[in-house]
Design a protein that fits this description.
Layout: E1 12-18, H1 22-32, E2 40-47, H2 54-60, E3 65-69, H3 74-85, E4 90-94, E5 98-100, H4 104-114, E6 118-127, E7 130-136, E8 166-168, E9 175-179, H5 180-186, H6 198-208, E10 212-223, H7 234-251, H8 256-278, H9 282-297
Helix pairs in contact: 6-7, 7-9, 8-9
Length: 307
C-alpha cells in the first residue's frame, strides 16, 4: 500500500553499529528494504572491524551511510558517532542483530505524536528464532539493593497480554527511538560504560530532564540476541559486573548506595566466586574480579547523582 501524499513523514535516522559481523548487518539492511516508511536515513557505524563491511552493506542497501571508525568505540561511542552524523528529526538506534517488521517506524512515531513528554520509545521485542515469544514488553526498575532488573514479558508467549502503550522504566538498548529535541537537552549516550547498562543510565538522564520512556506494543522488532559479544562470554561477564556497579554509583544516592555495596560484598561476590570455582570457569572469574577492580581504580566516574 502506498502512503498518502498529504501525510507528513518526518525524517527518521536509523543508526546501527557493526563489529566483525557484516553478515548480520546485511540481514538488517535486507529487512529495511521490506518496509514501506518513505523517509529514512540509514547510518552504519563500523567499530574498527577486521574487514571493511562497506561493500557488502552498500550492495544490499546502496543509500546507507557507512562511517568507519579507526577505533572500537563500544556500543555507546559507536552510536554517538552515528548520532553526530544524523540529520533526522527522530533517531532510531538499533542493534545490528535485529530485523524490522512493517509498521515499526510508524508505531514508534505515534507515541511521540500522542505523548509530548516522550523522550525515548522502544518497540515490543520478539526473539528472532522463536517468533511469537516475547523478549521485551518494557523494563522493571533497577533494584536499589541488588543492582539488577528484568524485562517484562520475557520468554512469555505473546497472547496480547502486553498490548497497551505504557510508560516503562527503561528503553531496550537493542531498539530505541529518540526525539532529537529531547536529545538536545539530555546529551549523548554515556561512553564510560562501553558495553551494557549505558541505555539504563541514558534513560535516567532523560527522566531527570522531565521526559518519559515508553513501550509501544504496536511496533514489533525481531532480535537475534548477543550476536556480537556472545551469550556467555568473559567480555560480557566483565562489562556486566563493571557496569552494574558503575550504574549504581552514578545513579543511586547515599545512603541507599551503601546497602547495594554491602549486598554486593557479602552476597554477590561470594556467590559468584564459588559458582565460577565449582564450574571451573577461571576466565569468567578473572573477568568478574577485573570488573570489580575497575571501579576501585576509578573513584570518580563523573557521578550524576549527589552523594
Amino acid at each position: 500500500m502506498q502512503p498518502e501524499s498529504n501525510t507528513y513523514y518526518p525524517l527518521v535516522s536509523i543508526i546501527t553499529v557493526n563489529y566483525n559481523n557484516a553478515k548480520v548487518t546485511v540481514e538488517l539492511m535486507a529487512s529495511l528494504n521490506r518496509i514501506s516508511y518513505p523517509n529514512l536515513e540509514v547510518i552504519v557505524v563500523d567499530n574498527a572491524s577486521a574487514e571493511s563491511p562497506v561493500a557488502a552493506i552498500k550492495n544490499e542497501y546502496p543509500s546507507a551511510i557507512v562511517i568507519e571508525s579507526k577505533d572500537n568505540l563500544g556500543f555507546a561511542g559507536g552510536n554517538n558517532l552515528g548520532i553526530k552524523a544524523a540529520r533526522g528529526e527522530y533517531l532510531f538506534l538499533v542493534n545490528n542483530d535485529t530485523e524490522f517488521t512493517e509498521g515499526l517506524i510508524e508505531g514508534l512515531l505515534e507515541v511521540f505524536a500522542k505523548h509530548p513528554d516522550a523522550g525515548v520509545v522502544s518497540p515490543k521485542f520478539h526473539y528472532f528464532f522463536q517468533k511469537g515469544t516475547i523478549e521485551y514488553a518494557g523494563y522493571k526498575a533497577v533494584d536499589r539493593l541488588t543492582g539488577r532488573n528484568s524485562m517484562i514479558g520475557c520468554r512469555e508467549q505473546d497472547n496480547g497480554q502486553y498490548d497497551a502503550i505504557s510508560e516503562t522504566h527503561y528503553a531496550h538498548g537493542g531498539a530505541m527511538m529518540v526525539s532529537v529535541s529531547a536529545l538536545a537537552k539530555v546529551g549523548l549516550m554515556p561512553e564510560v560504560y562501553f558495553l551494557y547498562y549505558e541505555e539504563f543510565d541514558w534513560c535516567e538522564q532523560f527522566k531527570r530532564q522531565g521526559y518519559k520512556i515508553y513501550y509501544q506494543y504496536k511496533a514489533l522488532i525481531y532480535h537475534k540476541e548477543s550476536m556480537t559479544t556472545g551469550k556467555n562470554s568473559p567480555l560480557k561477564t566483565y562489562y556486566i559486573t563493571r557496569n552494574r556497579i558503575l550504574f549504581m554509583r552514578r545513579n543511586v544516592k547515599l545512603p541507599a548506595r551503601m546497602f547495594f555495596i554491602l549486598y554486593f560484598i557479602f552476597l554477590t561476590i561470594p556467590k559468584n566466586t564459588v559458582q565460577f570455582l565449582l564450574k571451573r570457569e577461571s576466565v569468567h572469574m578473572n573477568a568478574f574480579w577485573k570488573g570489580i577492580f575497575w571501579n576501585l581504580k576509578h573513584p570518580k566516574p563523573d557521578n550524576l547523582c549527589v552523594a
